[in-house]
Structure formats: structure tokens, C-alpha cells
Design brief:
Radius of gyration of chain A: 19 Å
Strand order of the largest sheet of chain A: 1-2
Number of helices of chain B: 13
Largest sheet of chain A: 2 strands, antiparallel
Largest interface: A-B, 27 and 34 residues
Oligomer: heterodimer
Shape of chain B: globular
Radius of gyration of chain B: 22 Å
Shape of chain A: globular
Order of helices and strands of chain B: HHHHHHHHHHHHH
Helix content of chain B: 40-55%
Strand content of chain B: under 5%
Number of strands of chain B: 0
Number of helices of chain A: 11
Largest sheet of chain B: none
Structural class of chain A: mainly alpha
Chain lengths: 319, 243
């Protein structure tokens, strides 16, 4: 077991020791088992249940007519077709909706209604208090492996309008149930393992995301997004961190079967995904370990660690 | 590799070695006979799909064109699906499913069981290469409105039941993605309706990761009808579904 595994393992065991009772079992409409013969993947012991969200965003049909509504609609279009609608600022093949499901509406998939009211906030990543617009700029720089659109650009203003509209009637400054990915108290029974993750990937993920994580395209656009490699998020994106990826996967993947993986499977799959090369962190200035120390100094980041004999971040994908 | 061994591509490797080793012990006439026999067998390993489509395989598989049309376009009103241009691996898997019963169909099962593995592969390849019939490129139905029930299911989903938009897997407009997610665009509405119902009722169970079985539990009969009609009305590119 290499040092990275040991660090992750120790940290997770410590986190597990710090938390009390697990989250109460959720009534989040799990799909009824269709046929007795197809129990499929059962929940493992210690299954993590995401809390039942209370907030429901307004329906798309409620977007008003007029210039404000047009901006909201444009924001939605940008959200769902980012790679073409915001092309000057996007460096990969992803869209916001790939990780913020149902066009940013889905609870436990980092919905925009859960984020809007929490800004401005201090962010450790930037060491400063950021506005929502600045947060969106970060999405473009890291998750979209692109460049930050100006704060007063249509891109940023439209995405803000869309998020603001979606958060109508949500209390400001309150962390809502269903915001972000359900990370609190979510730990794996055993430290995540690359080879176990590979098995999970092949059985549960490759159908959509491809045998090599390269996604699947139709007519030049991705239907299933790439999870690593040149067209995916870069090393600075939040999804490269194990706890975020594992929580996202557990709650939402396979698409339409969120909650069907065991906790261990979700963590292992996250490890497998995050242990592949992807485009370089834009904050890299020539020294990998310095970049790790400055920006990735966490057991949740595999950046700069050696996995399967390869030091991640040393051979980043070139788009 | 010597030219004489080229037909050996049809031979298992060990057979080539065995023939070489035995060369001194057998006559050239015997070798020639063996070669002709195996060459003939090699010919049927690449089973004649076009012949099976037209006349069946003489062992219980009916001629495919009887229901699926000479151009592989199917017959929409009768619920016989288009096969032309579908992904070969997908098609082969469906024949296997009919044979095994994971996809229950009293018409297809005897035919599928009467085909051997090579014939199934050959038919799958054959149909995958057929062009989209010209008549299907333009849908026969008018496009339902963008806010119709079918359009909403296809393009927005029903996330309260953890149902993504169909397009998220089946591609924009339902043109299909790879081997796992067949095209729905321009497909027979009756056929699509029958499939969704089959998943819901349990008579079709061959979907990877049971995705469709779970999704179908969140759809009622009206949903199924609406989304089937929507996809049937979607245009097909005349150059086929590029997976």
C-alpha cells in the first residue's frame, strides 16, 4: 500500500471516528424494485443515505416573459450546452449539466438553488471572499479547463440570472438540504482501491463513459462526458477530489440509478477516475510538488501522488 | 505469412500447425480435399446474411424481410422495427436475448434460436451497414409541440422519479449512441411503446444495468404512448446514426 493510500486511509478512519450517527434514512423516492428477480445491487452495510431535500425549484415553464426571462433562458442554455454556447471560454467537452444534473436543479448533485444563497463567501481555494460570479469564473478555469469569462459578460450574468431565478423563495445564507454533494459523514468502509475501482468502472461505468473514460460522442458533441484525459476537467477542478467525486457518484451514478452503488463501490470508482491523468492545474508554475503543497495538500487529492507507479500530474493530458 | 496460408486465417491456428506437421504423412490430394472442405466451411462461417434475409436459413429462421422489409426499414404500423443502420453489437445482443428469453417475443424467439452464433453476427453486421431507407429520413408524423408530454419526457425527463431525459442516453433527438443506446428517432411508435411496456411488465430484461427496467417503473401508459410518438416523429439523418 503506497503512502497516498495510507494517508487517505488514516484520514478517513479518523473522520469516521469523528462522526456520530449516520444521516437519517431518506425518503428520497428510490425507484421501486421492478421485479423480485432483479434486486440488482443491494445497499451494503453502512449505506450512506442523502437527506431528503425540502426545497423544490420553480418549473422551467415559470420562467417569465421579457428581458429578464430571456436572460434566465439564456443561462439555462449556457448551463446545458456550455461547450457550444460559451465556446470562447471552454477548453474541453464538458457542460455544467454533466455534474450539476437536471440543468442544475437536482438535489445532491450540487444544484444552483443550493449555491446561490451562500455567496458571497470566503473560499479557502482562493483565499478571499468571492461573489457568485467569481465562483462561476472558477468553474470555467478548472472544471471546463477554459478561461474565466469577465464578470460583466453575458455568460456570467446569464448564469447568475438562471441561478437566482432557480433559488426563488430559498432562504439566503442557509445551507439547504440537498445542496452540494452529500459528503457529510460519507466515508468508505475500507480505503479506496484503484483495482477494485477498475472492476466497478468496467461493470457500472464503462457502458456510458467508455472503456477508457473518454466518453461517447455523437455528431462531434459528447453525450456521455469524458472522465479523464484531454477533454475532461483539469487537475484544479473539485471533481478531482475523492470525497466530492465519491459523494457525487454515490448519489447520482449510474445515471438514473443514483444510490444503487455501495459506499465502497462509489469510493473505489472515484479513486479509479481520479487516479488518471487529465489537463494540468492552471496554477501549476513548473514544480509539481510545490503545486501539490500549495493547492492540493489534502489526502482527498491524488495530484502529485504516485498511483500504480505513476506520479499523477507529471504527464498531464494535452487538449 | 506465405500466400498459401492466407486461407488459414479461417483455420484455427493449431490446425495450420497440425497440417504443416503432418505434411509428410498425408497426400496432397487429402490436403486439397481438406482445404476445400474447410474453405467451404469457412465460407459459411461468414454466413450469407443476404440469403437468410431473403429466404431464411432453412433450419427454422424465417426470412427477415418478411417483417423487417427488403430495405430493413421495418413496418411502423405493425410495430416491426427498422433494423437498417442500427449498431451491429446491439443487434447481435438482441438476437441473443430473443434466443435466451431475456427478451420475450413469440415471433422472434424461434427464429433467433434457429440461428447460430455466426449467422447472428452476420445478420447484425449486414443490417448495421444498410442505409437508412429514404422514406424514413423524413418522419411520417408531425412534430408534437415542444411542451407536449412526450417532448418533456424526451428532453427534460422526470427527475422526481430519477428519470433523466431520454436524450441524455439515446442522444439528441434520439439518434442513438454506440452499442448500448439504440436510436429511437423515426422508429415505429408502436414498437417503442411495446418495448417500454415490456420493460415495465418484465418481459424484456436484457437492458444493461437494468436502466430501462428502472426507468419504466416511473412511466405510465400515457407517458409511454406520448414519448413513443415523440420519438417516432423525430427525423433521421439520411446518412444514418453515427454512433
Amino acid at each position: 500500500m503506497n503512502r497516498a493510500h495510507a494517508l487517505i486511509g488514516i484520514t478517513l478512519l479518523m473522520l469516521a471516528g469523528c462522526h456520530g450517527a449516520p444521516s437519517p434514512a431518506a425518503a428520497t423516492t428510490p425507484p421501486a424494485k421492478p421485479h423480485a428477480a432483479h434486486a440488482g445491487t443491494s445497499t451494503a452495510a453502512g449505506m450512506h443515505a442523502a437527506p431528503t431535500p425540502e426545497f423544490v425549484p420553480p418549473p422551467e415553464s415559470a420562467i417569465p416573459e421579457g428581458p429578464f426571462g430571456d436572460m434566465v433562458r439564456q443561462g439555462r442554455e449556457l448551463f446545458v450546452h456550455t461547450d457550444v454556447a460559451a465556446r470562447p471560454y471552454v477548453g474541453n467537452g464538458l457542460t455544467c449539466a454533466n455534474c450539476h444534473l437536471d440543468a442544475g436543479r437536482r438535489a445532491n448533485a450540487s444544484p444552483m438553488w443550493g449555491a446561490w444563497g451562500m455567496y458571497p463567501q470566503y473560499r479557502r481555494k482562493t483565499g478571499s471572499v468571492n461573489t457568485f460570479g467569481q465562483r462561476i469564473q472558477g468553474c470555467f478555469e478548472y472544471s471546463m479547463n477554459g478561461t474565466a469569462p469577465p464578470l460583466d459578460s453575458t455568460v456570467v450574468r446569464a448564469l447568475e440570472a438562471y441561478s437566482y431565478w432557480m433559488a426563488k423563495d430559498a432562504p439566503s445564507g442557509v445551507r439547504l438540504a440537498g445542496a452540494g454533494y452529500p459528503r457529510a459523514g460519507f466515508t468508505p468502509p475500507q480505503p479506496p482501491d484503484y483495482h477494485r475501482g477498475q472492476q466497478v468502472y468496467q461493470r457500472k461505468c464503462a457502458l456510458c463513459h467508455g472503456p477508457d473514460g473518454a466518453g461517447q460522442e455523437v455528431a462531434g458533441r459528447y453525450v456521455f462526458p469524458p472522465l479523464w484525459g484531454p477533454d475532461s476537467f483539469n487537475w484544479g477542478a473539485g471533481m478531482h477530489e475523492l470525497d466530492k467525486a465519491a459523494a457525487f457518484i454515490k448519489a447520482n451514478m449510474p445515471l438514473s440509478r443514483g444510490g444503487s452503488l455501495s459506499d465502497q463501490e462509489a469510493w473505489d470508482a472515484a479513486m479509479f477516475m481520479d487516479a488518471h491523468e487529465r489537463p494540468q492545474d492552471p496554477r501549476y508554475r513548473g514544480n509539481l510538488m510545490q503545486t501539490r503543497q500549495q493547492f492540493h495538500n489534502s489526502p482527498m487529492s491524488l495530484y502529485g501522488t504516485v498511483v500504480n507507479g505513476h506520479r499523477l500530474g507529471s504527464a498531464p493530458s494535452k487538449p | 505469412m506465405p500466400a498459401a496460408c492466407a486461407p488459414g486465417l479461417l483455420f484455427p491456428r493449431h490446425m495450420v500447425a497440425a497440417v504443416r506437421a503432418c505434411r509428410g504423412a498425408v497426400t496432397w490430394r487429402a490436403l486439397l480435399t481438406l482445404g476445400l472442405l474447410l474453405g467451404y466451411a469457412g465460407g459459411t462461417f461468414a454466413a450469407d446474411a443476404a440469403a437468410i434475409v431473403a429466404t431464411g436459413n432453412g433450419r427454422g429462421a424465417s426470412p427477415c424481410l418478411g417483417c423487417h422489409g427488403a430495405d430493413g426499414g421495418g413496418e411502423a404500423a405493425a410495430g416491426f422495427p427498422r433494423l437498417a443502420g442500427l449498431n451491429a453489437a446491439y443487434l447481435r445482443r438482441q438476437l441473443e436475448s430473443f434466443a435466451s428469453g431475456s427478451r420475450v417475443n413469440p415471433i422472434m424467439q424461434p427464429t433467433a434460436r434457429a440461428l447460430n452464433a455466426d449467422e447472428r453476427q452476420a445478420l447484425a453486421d449486414y443490417y448495421s451497414k444498410l442505409p437508412i431507407p429514404a422514406g424514413l429520413a423524413t418522419p411520417a408524423r408531425p412534430m408534437p409541440p415542444a411542451d407536449s408530454a412526450g417532448a418533456l419526457l424526451a428532453r427534460r425527463g422526470r427527475w422526481s422519479k430519477q428519470i433523466p431525459a431520454c436524450e441524455q442516453c439515446h442522444g439528441p433527438g434520439g439518434v442513438g449512441v454506440g452499442a448500448g443506446f439504440p436510436p429511437l428517432a423515426g422508429q415505429s411508435a408502436a414498437y417503442l411503446e411495446a418495448q417500454l411496456t415490456a420493460w415495465k411488465q418484465g418481459s424484456r430484461r436484457n437492458d444493461p444495468l437494468q436502466l430501462m427496467q428502472h426507468i419504466s417503473t416511473g412511466l405510465d401508459a400515457a407517458d409511454i404512448k406520448a414519448v413513443s410518438l415523440w420519438f417516432a416523429a423525430q427525423p433521421l439523418r439520411s446518412h444514418g446514426d453515427a454512433p
